[in-house]
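can u pls check wat happens w/ iron/sulfur cluster
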Amino acid sequence: MDGWHDAADRFGVPRTDAVLLALNLYGLQTRLGARVRLQVSVPVGAQARTIVIAAGRPDSPFTLADSGQLFAGAELVGAAVRTDVDDAVSGYLRCWDGTAWRAATINPASRSKCTGCAPCPTSLEPTADPRLDTEDELHLLLDGLRQQLPHGGSLRDLHEITVSTACYESEDAALEAMMVLRKVLRSRRIDARIVLLSSVVRSREAFRWLAEHVGPFGLFLTADCVTRRNLILKKTKADLLPELMPALLADAREAGLDTSFTYIVGLDSTKDMEPFLSAMLPQVTLFPSLQVFQAHTPVMDGLHTPEADEFSYFLNARRIVESVMVDAANNLVPEPWRCYRSLWYESYAGQPLEGPRR
Ligand code: SF4
């Protein structure tokens, strides 16, 4: 892991992005703890942003003093203004634009009970996310979100509600859940786009049905990785072949849905990752969630591709994505609030990144 700052200089990546990317990758060198949520300023005094990272990583260069000062080795690189144990909850607000919360993430299918994906940290977290998927239970969940709003805030300010679980076992189960959610939102006159993280919604009929009955709707296909899928992912994800995914996104887009995907950077070699991203990126209408692979345990350490031992692997992934997006004439840019373990923070393709950060 030595030399991550030199690699960032070689790639022309700003210091802030290099620090945050490395922090996501290496986690925090605390004695205890599996996963923490930080509101962190990098450098000290900068606008705070949310990140969720592994803790209890003895080899990490990053330490957090009781005062909140964040060090990389002996160097002060930032400050945490808030530190929480990351727990699996039923819902939380995101995308604070200075006047209102514009997005929420909800977890009605009890993500913490879902198992089967080796890189998934959910089972390591404390949990407070009972299954809440009937109409009455969804109203309760939304009431809980409303209580988190500032004075004068309204859930009608939301532009997007993401259903964070990829745990639905079948396409029909996912469609039914989306229909119930839309019904509940309509009854409260909330017109936010529903975004579902899923691998089980795959058919053109389903996309058309969602556009007609649930829209506005976005599909974030949980692609996650290209190689070793049977080993790494649960069956309902692994049985979707990566070579079918670009056409699946194209079908969803054709039906009138927003489209995007999740992908974990650090599991596949560059030679497997690059053609996959080149095929997927032209099909998105929302910038994808390209997440730095975070290992929380020594067993998870063993999942990464050997190339990911080098920090430059991640910088090269940034470069690949930027170049494919330019070639596809796609002017989407990362939305900093959307991904807590992103490849980008302050800058994208040499341009500053603006917008909400938490
Ligand atoms: S589908 Fe996989 S990644 Fe998603 S919550 Fe379940 S185990 Fe975790």
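Residues 111, 114-117, 120, 122, 166-167, 234 surround iron/sulfur cluster (CB under 6 Å).
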